[in-house]
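B., you asked whether I could sanity-check this one before it goes into the benchmark set. Here's the sequence:
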Amino acid sequence: MNCRLYLVPAPLGDNPPQEVIPPYVYTVISHVRNFAVEDIRSARRYLSKIGFKGMIDSLSFYEVNEHSAQEDIEGVFKVFAESGEDMAVISEAGLPAVADPGAALVALAQKAGMEVVPLSGPSSLMMALMASGMNGQCFAFAGYVPVRGEERRKRLKELEARSRKYSETEIMIETPYRSDSLFQDILAVCGPSTRLCVAADITLPGQYIRTRTVAEWKKTGLTISRRPAVFLILA
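And here's what the prediction gave me:
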């Protein structure tokens, strides 16, 4: 297949795209008319801001999000493959296909031998790691930890043990409305000398990135509220 699947980065929050999205991104995808997105309304707004304004109604959008069944995603891919035209995947924030529903579409493209073209943009995971002062040579992305208390605490203990064994930075994310509860569980489960970095609102005006030991965090406390955050631990 000669058509390409472009992976298009998006801002991590409500800030002007030109501050975090390289100008070349629009140049590369200016010909694309088919987009797989998490939310059509926000994708239309974003594309209008980076250069598609005036032609937005000529674009075709297909939703691929956490509610999409595998057969729905396969249906989107079939439309894409049969059209013979390039398509782009856009996440709601940051880089698509990383802890993101777009990964399923990328997997289908790879299986079909299609060219997948990743475009550079902000990654909350890598930016948090960069600023944490933790081990950037040995790290692992643990994704979302379990929601339920007992399962979550068990998983946190496992991650801390792995971090201690391999001197490995463990990177976690959580939905914003559960950030504070995850923060408290980390303090309750991890040892006092384990280092914890909380990176919230990355690239936004209220950006907050701090690394302290669990013992220090217990003294200072922190309220994250509903800000998107990345959590990193190093035992």
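One thing to flag: The first strand starts at residue 4 and ends at 8. Otherwise nothing jumped out at me.
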